[in-house]
Amino acid sequence: MPNLRNNRESDQQDSSAENNVDSTTVKNLVEVKERLGFGLRSMYRSVLEEPLPADMLALLDKLEETEGTGQSPSQACQDRCD
Q: Measured between alpha carbons, how far is 75 from 78 in angstroms, rounded to an integer?
């Protein structure tokens, strides 16, 4: 039965090596996740600070005007665009 014993020892060595790799891998993944989160939050903040384009502001103004008339926005646009 020495073969079984050698196999068990080999399996134990493999699993302990896997545990070491797993803990290192997990640490690396956590670090990557933190960096990605920081980068995405930074990008999102910069997008929020950008001003709205003039044509978007004009469309919003038209939408606000149509809310008081009872027309749907699509009807009001058709009336103005045609």
A: 5
Instruction: For the beta carbon of residue 38, count every other beta carbon within 10 angstroms.
Output: 10
Q: What residue spans define the domains of the chain?
A: 1-50, 52-82
E strand residue ranges, 7-82: none
CA distance 75 to 66: 9
Would you give per-residue pLDDT tens digits along the chain (82 residues)? 455 555 565 555 555 555 566 888 888 999 999 999 999 999 999 999 999 899 999 999 888 888 776 666 566 565 665 5
User: Which residues, in sequence order, are CB contacts of 62 under 8 Å at separation 6+?
Assistant: 73, 76, 77, 80
**pTM as predicted:** 0.41
How far is residue 34's CA from residue 15's CA, in Å, rounded to a whole number? 28
* Residue 19 in tokens: 């545990």
